Amino acid sequence: LHGFRQCTDSALACGACCLFDRPSGDGPAPMETEAQPPAAPRMEKKLRAKKSALVVSSASVAGWTAAQLNEYFEKEGQMAVADKLQEDTNEAKNALESYIYDLRSKLYESLGQYVQEADREALSSQLSAMEDWLYGDGEDETKSVYVAKLAELKAKGDPIRARAAEDDTRPGAIEQLRRIAEQYISLADSTLPAHAHLEAADRDALRKEAGSALEWLNEKVALQAQLHKYDEPLLTTADITKKRDVVERVCKPIASKPPPKKEEAKAEQPAAAAAAAPAEGAAEPAADGGNAAAAA
After folding, report:
1. Cβ-contact 126, 100 below 8 angstroms
2. Which of 81, 163, 207, 293 could tie 114 with a disulfide, CB 3.0–4.6 Å?
3. pTM (2 decimals)?
4. Gap between the Cα atoms of 38 and 208, Å rounded
């Protein structure tokens, strides 16, 4: 006989449930319990959010009044203007310093032949005196003073630079104008089929404008050749460019005139034949009249 034990678990509803001990090879048999009923579902509370307007008012910023803020804004603007003025003053001073160094180094080198000896020595002395002033009494001057000093030097230095620049660009401008004018003259004298449509008036206009430009150029070049490099140029690159533009404006439309289309050429041939027919017809009666006179 197997014994039994009374269940003393108060959580069991039966209160007198007994479980038989079942023999086991290793130990006591597991206890069997009755099936529990499913737990009721748990209800969750839903939270509701309510929005309301938040009104924020401020009487001042960081404890400053409106009058104080306006005062600080004004001071900030004044400091910005002062900084800008100081920056512009430094730039004007640096521009003056750079001009002194650059012009003095070139007076006896690349610009030497474009200024006379006496003028070069005087300008060199002026540049040295300006440099001494810049590092002495002019160390902390205003912007307007530096600008005035630079203008004083440029009044003497820039004409020298301009003569050198003209001497450098003038030959190329002369060659360009000469080549363009000669091309238009060659076009006016051309007998090629591609240019056969050009009328005599067009060819005369090309010769006149291009020939006039060449005549003007040769005269100016001869006069310029008589001057020294340190003299003010008589023939400038701007003058040559202006003359070239005039030639192009007159000659280019003529040179680019297209030949007549084939349909237009065919229409012109019957018109020419019709114009010649009355002249031939008028000659025949005259010939007949002559024969009649001879017969009489």
Report:
1. no
2. 163
3. 0.61
4. 120
